[in-house]
Amino acid sequence: MLELVLILAAVAVVFGLVAARRPADFQVTRSALMAAPAPIVFEQVNNLQNWDAWSPWAKLDPKAHHVFEGPEAGAGAIMRWAGNNKVGEGSMTIVASQPCELIRFTLEFLKPFKATNTAEFTFKSEGGQTLVTWHMFGSNNFIGKAVSLFMNCDAMVGGQFEQGLAAIKAIVERA
């Protein structure tokens, strides 16, 4: 019995050391070219009340509760959400909004894990099209580092970004 306890303790120590050595910083980036002018695409993201139409998380929990605060769009606009275990609970605040160029958010996750990250959308006009890039970055605490041993954040979140960009593309190209 003592041998088993010692083996389990050694495994836990090795796991902790491996997790602690994981990179703290992470980033996820995806882009899509849309056949629509930048002002049309920009408005889909800059007005938080538009997000339900294209957000991949809205599809994961259509009954999630949303509360909007501050201005309807642009810097200072806030969306708070509370949903099932797939979308969790948190808020996002637009902290910078430069028309047709950049929207930056502070994301505060409360559930299932507490975290604060930054997300950005950039818009680059290319003829009659717009290249939209969705970027999220932040730092992992020890638990985030440990989870990253088993889950690929870039693949998981990146896949959701790809779904969201495809949905925005469908909306703006129909307009």
From TrEMBL:
List the Pfam families.
Polyketide_cyc2 (PF10604)
Output the Gene3D superfamilies linked to this UniProt entry.
Answer: 3.30.530.20
Top-rank lineage group of the source organism:
Bacteria
The protein in question is named: SRPBCC family protein
From which source organism is this entry? Methylomonas rivi
Lineage per the UniProt record: Bacteria, Pseudomonadati, Pseudomonadota, Gammaproteobacteria, Methylococcales
